Amino acid sequence: EVAWQLKLPRSWQVFSTSDQPPPGTKQPVALVVAGNAESGSELSVLRVPIDTSAASSDKAGSEKLVGYFASKSPALSAKQAVEGLLASQKSARMQTKFGLTAEPVESVRNGRRYITYAFAASICQGQVEQGVQSSRCLDPETGNDIDQLERTHSITLTVDRSQGEDVLWLVDISVPTVGWDALKAAVGELAGSFEIGNAEKLEEERAAAEKEFNKVVAEIREKEEAQIKQQEQQQQQQKPQGVFGLFR
Fold it and tell me: Whole-angstrom distance between the N-terminal and C-terminal Cα of the chain?
């Protein structure tokens, strides 16, 4: 298996998990699906084999993506590398609007390159009526306009070839578009914790993060205990003196 990690906040709930399939499996797999009910955030970690054969539905797009990550100095830009993926996301079923909110950019973590970008999309949960400039979302029974699902997605991806095949690893974190500005920093931190690669290195990072977390928790508990002790001392000092004590 390929080692990977994602530092999911403790407030998030994991809805489902799947094991990595054996090499050669052509079907995409959602390794983790999770969410946070309070913020309406959702997350999925996908493992998708990339088909660059003549039978591929987008051979050119797949080759661009694979070639970008295979080259140490790619001739393509990050946006050009994910053109095929963007085209697929733009044409998602029941989607009426799509627009990039953050251009694809490359980052490097422990020697591995990643591409990150964000887009906003509107999903119709009713009947889509295609227009010349825009589309409408209608209630199939009444024909009235209905509200659409407005979400902004943060995408982080890389391509791995450690098992002899090109595999796309992708994290999709989405939040209600209305809350994007408030949640953007937290989403970025979560997306930035995603890594695949050397198992020993990832375990070292996990152990270091856990040690730091435990240290912070211990400091918080120590402060809380000190405050409680101080409050008890203050309450003891403020106790009224007995009747006999007043006449001493």
Answer: 81
